Amino acid sequence: MQKISIQPLTKEAFAPFGDILEIENASSSFWINNDKCQRHHDLAKVETTGENPRTLINIFAGQPYALPLQLDMVERHPFGSQAFMPLSDRPFLVVVAPDTENGPGAPLAFMTRPGQGVNYHRNVWHGVLTPLQEPANFLVVDRGGDGNNLEEFFYKTPYIIA
User: Which one-letter DSSP state was computed for residue 63?
Assistant: First the structure.
């Protein structure tokens, strides 16, 4: 097994795979509702393609994982992006992998800061939702519609994330 070190989630390191959802990445911010609410605008590109696409808003209740973690599988969504925003201040593990001619390449592992979320771009290989230590709820924005929007890849040799 190959070992992967976890690195901090930064805009620059994550850019090839998607967007980081946090106030600092807003394309603009402005006050609404009689200046009682600041809107941090346009945090991510929501993508939906294919037949009869529509945007879904979900809440996922994730069960915790423990480190070190054995990574056997990554997945991607060919018809839409997928965003995960934690509904708590607890960090979570983000795993992505570059696309190669033979499927996903060697994965990268990131740890979010409290309050950070991610938006995986359409067709980006990524790990499953991975809260750590405690159960956690996430607001998830993704694509609904016709067609199979899930492709899974199982590594011949698992990776260990520590």
Answer: P
Rounded Cα distance, 153 and 133, in Å: 26
The CA distance from 77 to 141, in Å, is: 13
Give the position of tokens 């590594």.
Answer: 155
In this prediction the pTM is 0.92
Residue 24 has pLDDT above 90, yes or no: no
Domain-by-domain residue ranges, the chain?
2-161
pLDDT tier at 28, thresholds 50, 70, 90: confident
| Among 102, 77, 95, CA closest to 9 | 95
What pLDDT sits at residue 27?
Answer: 82
Characterize 120-137 residue by residue with b for buried, 16 or more Cβ atoms within 10 angstroms of its Cβ, and e for exposed: bbbebbbbebbbbeeebe
C-beta atoms surrounding 45 within 10 Å: 12
CATH architecture observed for domain 2-161: Sandwich (2.60)
